[in-house]
Amino acid sequence: MEETKPSRKMFLEIVQELRTLIRNENIRTGEKLPSERVLAERLGAGRSTIREALRSLELLGLIETRRGEGTFLSDYRQHQLVDVLAAFIMQEPKSLEDVRLTMQIHEKDAVQRAAAGPEIRELPLWDSLEAAVSSDRPVRREDIIREILVAAGNRLSLKIWYLLNAYAKTPYEGDAEPPERPVIREMILAIKNGNSAAAADAYTRWAGMVHG
Amino acid sequence: MEETKPSRKMFLEIVQELRTLIRNENIRTGEKLPSERVLAERLGAGRSTIREALRSLELLGLIETRRGEGTFLSDYRQHQLVDVLAAFIMQEPKSLEDVRLTMQIHEKDAVQRAAAGPEIRELPLWDSLEAAVSSDRPVRREDIIREILVAAGNRLSLKIWYLLNAYAKTPYEGDAEPPERPVIREMILAIKNGNSAAAADAYTRWAGMVHG
DNA sequence: CTTAATTTGTCCGTATGTATG
DNA sequence: ACATACATACGGACAAATTAA
Fold first, then answer.
1. Measured between CA atoms, how close is A130 to chain B, in angstroms?
2. Is the pTM of this model over 0.85?
3. Phi, psi angles (nearest 5°) of residue A175
4. Are strands A70-73 and A63-66 parallel, antiparallel or unpaired?
5. Measured between alpha carbons, how far is A61 from A79 in angstroms, rounded to an integer?
6. How far is Cα A45 from Cα A37, in angstroms, rounded to an integer?
7. pLDDT tens column, A51-69
8. Mind telling me how many Å the CA of B79 is from chain A's nearest CA?
């Protein structure tokens, strides 16, 4: 009989142990993980099993492996999973609708939160955003929203939004069209004035313009 | 020279080829895929490489493997990817405050959404919830919130909330104390009346009572 | 009930391409 | 140029679980 795991699949255990290892060793994004052979010895598993776990995380875009160099903790924004998941899942309209709605939940909250606090709504960011949408230069919708989420300061919410955006990758592609610009400008002004309700209202109308 | 692409990683090619194989063979959810050895021969790769691709898809929840039986195409509608991704998101210097705030984002949206749609706010659920908080019996805060999230109908949002709630531990543990009950009742009544703003306001006050 | 065949689970050995010093 | 370290990929071997004869 073995010493520990009567429970699960080995490679899932490895995935879990890799997570705790990354946390304990305090490995940051871009830094290197131990080699496969070292991991095999430390975690008490064969190289094949280690590789299966590593490949799974690679497909998710959580790590990046470079031949001859090693395995590196990747930036979660690397949406390699999108192509794969899109092929398998994207036919499901219900799921996509949930993703879209959930993105809007976080976006709307960020808009409201930005207007609520003086330390956020007095940032110079809003002046530059207003200037951008008031100009004739093309402005990407995604950039505007991301800036607002960053300014709002909830990093967890920002990360969730990143993942959902990579997953859906249609809602806010492209530039803000001329008809949208007055609404966006209204939203920014409401934030600067600290009118949270008006900002949320303008955001809702904008979101309604982008996707029916 | 090879027939296709010597450039990309083999196991990613296998993932791609598995997708076309599933489509061509018209394999439905729950049905069985060819065995690993058969796949290795048909796709011209070693069994280890086939397994790496299969495990990746398994971690994504796209397939399910049962020892001694085989590999089966699973129901991909479950957002299992959120579990894995969330586990890795959380590894960072996570401020518990962000977790708490992000939970409230989803909760508040569910409350507003419930009040917005007639098909939701007319559910018998609200009557039973109102009766529960009006009685003297203990009512768990967590149960109330979960019911509202379920009623709101965004399954992805619910899933994210589950994860955050499990991670934050103790945000809404325990029963709704007597001082909270009038506010909760006010929130429920606002939902039933379709007053989205009042419902959101009552929720905010309730959340402020629970954690300072 | 026993036996055999099939399939996944796991590990090992080997060869090769690639990057670093 | 050479040696080292690492990922890449293949194939073999055996264990464990399931199914069917």
1. 26
2. no
3. -95, 160
4. antiparallel
5. 6
6. 9
7. 999 988 888 777 888 888 9
8. 9
